[in-house]
Every structure is written in C-alpha cells, then in structure tokens.
Amino acid sequence: MRFMAKAHKPTSRPSSHSKSAGRSQSKSHKKKALVTPHPHQRGGVELVDPLVQAQLKLYDEALSLFHQQKFARAKQELEKVLEGPSKELADRARMHVKIAEQRMKPSAELNPRTAEEHYQRGVAMMNIGRWDDARESLIKARKAAPKADHIHYALAALDCLTGEADSAMANLKVAIQLRAENRYHARNDEDFAFLQEDPRFTELLYPEKDGTAG
Fold it and tell me: In this structure, what are the phi and psi dihedrals at residue 37, rounded to the nearest 5 degrees?
C-alpha cells in the first residue's frame, strides 16, 4: 500500500518584520503629507502677508523713481516703505534713502566743478522749474562727461518738459545706446508724456514690435 505525504497549508499570517515595515511606510507618508510648503519669497522677503506685498509694491515704485534720478519723490516713497512689516525691505529702503539724500545735497549748487556736480545742479533746477538754468548745467555736465548715460537721459527729460521733441529724441537715443536699461525707465517716466503720441518714441522704446533694436 502506498502512503501519500501530507501537504502542509501555507501560513497566511505576515511576519512581524513586514508589519513593522508597513507601519513605518504609513508613518512616513503621513509625515510627508503634514510638511507645509515654504512661503513664496522674493529676494529673501516672504510675500504671504498682504502688508508685505503692499510694502514691496511701494519699494518697487520708489526704486523706479530713484533710477529716474527723481530723488526727492523717491525719498518720500522710500520713507513709506520704512513703516512696513518687512525688516529686509525696510533695511534696503533705508540704504536708498541715504543715497537719495546725498544726491540731493545742494553743497555744489553755487560753484559746481565736476560733471556730477553740474548734473546734480541741473536736476535740482529741473525740480523747481528753472529750465534755462537746468539746461545750462546739464550741457556743462554732458561736455565734461559725454559718455554718462544719466546726463543724456536728464537732458532728454528736460527737452520733453520744454517741448523740444527732436532734441529729446536725440538725447534719449544716446542714453539708451549707452545704457539699455534707460529704455525701460523711459517707458514709465511721466516726464516723457510729451512724446507719447510720437511714433519715433514708440519705435525707440518698443523695438521688439518691428523686430529691430534701438
């Protein structure tokens, strides 16, 4: 008579090792799900707080005025930034306030000698509407420093304020050739409102529309 060996039933109970591994993976997934994303930042400044966002907008506007050499107005806007919640933005604004104050000092107004002193006097005269005095100082500044883009830019702005379209275009074109960023400053500079309807102005500031570079 032939005997058959008994078949052993496989055990369905998982090992303690597999159970602990499963629990570990489950906890790991839970931990990953609980991790909060870092708040969006710009230049190290967190932008979650709407008050910080408003402060950053003020700072950007003030910086635009600063680059347009409108130091008095830039200083006013920068001082508003100091009142915001972000310490980083306040520190940056405080630094630019000091620079603006230095640029506005009238110490060289009576006896300017260098190109920068003539330039500063010219801008000061523009700010109070003394166009002839401003032009005289800026022309002297340009003569002393013919490759200083900010001097050509200031002359272009003065030309606009006094209705000299051709001269304004010529000076602005040189300013842009010397420093391309002047193209973007001029786009938002209200001093150039006089040229807004001039097709030459549009072509110079928006060369991408016709595929040419100014």
Answer: -65, 150
